[in-house]
Amino acid sequence: MLISGKPHTTGVCAGTPQQERELLRDLARKAEQELIGVQMASMDELTLLPNRHGFLALAQLGLEACGQLGRPATLLFFNLDDFKRINYLFGRTEGDHALKTFADVLSIGFRESDVIGRLEGATFVALLTGSCGVDVTAIKARLEEMLDERNTMAHRGYGIGFSIGQIEYDPTAHDSVEELLVEAEKALGR
């Protein structure tokens, strides 16, 4: 292995203890920067939720765990209602606030074991691991209540509304999260 252009063998000290500590600190900083880069590539920078790429990776792990444990899973997909209208009438900054508010409500409204992400634009998803036959009406009511509180506190000139759909994970019909998303996008009319 080469470190700083010099051969390095395990168990042999290449320099003083202080030089070794500095080298280790430098390597730790580089590793941390690479990790931050990987996280940023998988994260939607506006909402701080996983982006499509990050969601696919995390949700696939969740589905594999459900498959190994024989547990169900449900994919919920969300679209903000009238999002283009919000952007048009109130400006892009206000549209960004609506997206962030909805992302925050999703983060609070679901379990830590669920995988939530923003696919694109005003489309969000949540993979509920270990759940099947979820009551979408109850979920929608709970999320709407949280949004109503935020809308009231923010004194916006609009309300944040959303539509919701669900796809049950079927291991015989869905080999991957991608297949679930394709089915969800068909249901959304894309």
UniProtKB/TrEMBL annotation:
It is an enzyme of class 2 (transferase). Its EC number is 2.7.7.65. Residues 71-190 form the GGDEF domain. It catalyses: 2 GTP = 3',3'-c-di-GMP + 2 diphosphate. Transmembrane segments: none annotated. This is diguanylate cyclase. It comes from Pseudomonas izuensis.
